[in-house]
């Protein structure tokens, strides 16, 4: 009984959190990803590995919330958002791996892949057309 109660409680908190994620949170995370992307570019150009690695952490953290998409309010599906989120994280790891081994071109091409993911979702936002 105690276990069930705990389970219900955890589920309740999870559901509450998912619902509590609103447009204000989304904009905050979007801005955080934008600043991480700028920082990544800067770090590549200034040859500052730490700057890039810190920004990758920040990018991945904010990218994890992309999939919390209440599709009733949005122009894209949760399924699509989930895939985008995981692609962004995958390419962010690519930036990290390349930068760690001193491959700036490799880091830059993964950076472009992330940017392409951002743009493909933004292209779906009807009010932005
Ligand atoms: C799955 C969809 C999706 C993906 C992927 C996505 N965005 Fe967004 N983005 C949105 C939505 C939705 C908005 C809000 C549009 C609105 O309502 O004005 C937004 C808005 C923004 C804004 C404007 C914020 C503001 O202050 O108005 C920035 C900057 C931004 N995104 C950056 C990024 C970056 C950088 C990435 C990639 C790393 C990214 N986005 C990936 C859906 C996405």
TrEMBL record:
Q: Which organism is it from?
A: hydrothermal vent metagenome
GO BP term (any one): electron transport chain
Q: Which InterPro entries match?
A: Cyt_c/b562 (IPR010980)
User: What are the protein's GO molecular function terms?
Assistant: electron transfer activity; heme binding; iron ion binding
This protein is called what?
Answer: Cytochrome c
């Amino acid at each position: 009984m105690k276990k069930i109660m705990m389970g219900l409680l955890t589920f309740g908190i999870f559901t509450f959190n998912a619902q509590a994620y609103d447009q204000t949170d989304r904009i905050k995370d979007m801005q955080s990803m934008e600043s991480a992307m700028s920082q990544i570019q800067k770090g590549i150009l200034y040859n500052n590995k730490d700057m890039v690695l810190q920004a990758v952490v920040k990018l991945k953290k904010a990218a994890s919330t992309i999939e919390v998409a209440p599709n009733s309010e949005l122009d894209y599906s949760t399924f699509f958002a989930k895939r985008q989120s995981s692609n962004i994280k995958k390419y962010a790891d690519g930036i990290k791996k390349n930068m760690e081994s001193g491959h700036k071109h490799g880091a830059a091409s993964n950076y472009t892949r992330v940017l392409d993911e951002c743009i493909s979702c933004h292209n779906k936002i009807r009010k932005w057309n």
